[in-house]
Amino acid sequence: MKSNNFKNRLTALALCFTLLLGAAPITHAYAVNDESDTSSSQSDSDSTDTSSTDSDSTDSADSKDSKDATADNDKDVTAAASEAPAVTATAALLISPDSDMVLYEKNADKKRYPASTTKIMTALLTLENVKDLNETVTAEQGDFTKVTADSSNADIKVGETVRVIDLLYALMLPSANEAAYMLARHVGGTSEHFVDMMNTRAEELGCTGTHFSNPCGLHEEDHYTTARDLYLIAREAMKNDTFTNILDTVQYRMPKTNMHEERIIFTTNQLIFSSFNPWSYPYNKGIKTGHTSQAGNCFVGYAEYGDAKLYSVVLGSAASSKEYPTVAASFTDTKSLYKWGFTHFKTKTVAKKGDTLAHVKVDLSTQTDQLVLTAKTDLVALLPADVETDSLEATPNLPEAVDAPIKAGDVVGSMTYSYNGTSYGTVELVALSDVEMSRVLYYSDKLSHFFQSTVFKIVLIAAAIFIVLYILFNITFGGIRRRRRRKAMRKRYDNDDYPRRHRR
């Protein structure tokens, strides 16, 4: 009997150690997977940090005048197609807003003085913060302190009361500096606070090379931006319908005020000023001109041709163009970029809504093991003219599997189309049909995950440890108790007073 008890204890002890050893490999496997994921994530992060480093980010704003602008070499020019246009601008950008694809850039991240293209931000903040554009603002002497007599204006007088909407037209068409200060004071309380708002908003939009010092763009050393930042600001402003309506206006009748009869103001945008001018461009829709001797000639533009849309930015263009000596080269530079962009790039339908583009594995369903994925919307991209859609590389971004239930139209992933490393657009992928969930598979999966979970492993290990300790305790202290009982029984047996009937 003693031998059998000892064997039973040994068997139980062996079983406990087997359970412990059996749990160990599972825990180790999870640790390996976590380490692999972490390594991959770190690698991606390092790659991103390296690629985003910009050696030009600390450059000071260019203080050269427009005569020096043409001397800037073109070594930093990059274009998405051959035969890139030559522009006089020291910095330029041509970009498709649908995919944020850069078609052409030249010193796009170098800091430059923006001149009156600053007023795009002034208009944006006004439209974001003033609910009633019929509100009036009365001009104060302080609104004219920094406005020189020869700077652009709308002939607004001290004490004159003007509606906000009229000030916006004066701001964007004749580029009135007094209108900029009046709007800044009205929106920000003071022009200084408004400038703080401008810089905050620029940061929110992702601008990394911009600092504003005033609301109009008159020259200050610490008032600068980049071509890429101006694109970000303009793109945001163009989301406002009132802003777009103003930009496409050649002339505007400002109503009679307390100090002025009705007046007509005209745009400074020579690309839309007259269709009879040979330098005009009928597809241009704005946006803003700018000029100071330090900034040169500047222009932020937007154009539409068919389904194609383009934003352009030129900073530091020459005072006049070769073709038209009386016209600032900022307009002819912009026109050249537009014509080149719309010629070398064409809008093409890459994917149509409902097109079957991928499949993904389905779990927890007996209905099907494959889910059909289709394009959620049409994907129209601006592609190089010589690139056909079937030449694009389609890269899916999908999970390895999805769990039922699934509803038709649920977004499951996306498909990105690229060519020679350049991305031309991404379309979301949605489920084509409903997929029902199997309750049997669902609960089976839940049970399986529980047995593989960390909680279960901890409970299992704790239980095994408890059993081992319990057995060890019984082996150690149980034997002592049994020996004591046997000793006590012998003493009682040997006692003369012990009843004879117990000795049988």
Give the topology string: H per helix, E per strand: HHEEEHEEHHHHHEEHEEEHEEEEEEEEHH
The total count of strands amounts to 18
Radius of gyration: 38 Å
SS-derived structural category: alpha+beta
What is the CATH topology assignment of the largest domain? Beta-lactamase
Distance between the termini: 22 Å
Question: What's the pLDDT, averaged over the residues?
Answer: 83
Overall number of structural domains: 3
Instruction: Give the name of the CATH architecture of the largest domain.
Output: 3-Layer(aba) Sandwich
Q: Which shape, going by the Cα principal axes? A: elongated
Unreliable stretches (pLDDT < 50, length at least 5) are 1-75
Percent of sequence in beta strands: 15-25%
Main sheet attributes: strand count, strand direction, barrel closure: 6 strands, antiparallel
CATH superfamily of the largest domain: DD-peptidase/beta-lactamase superfamily
Range of helix content:
25-40%
Look at the structure and give the CATH class of the largest domain.
Alpha Beta
Number of helices: 12
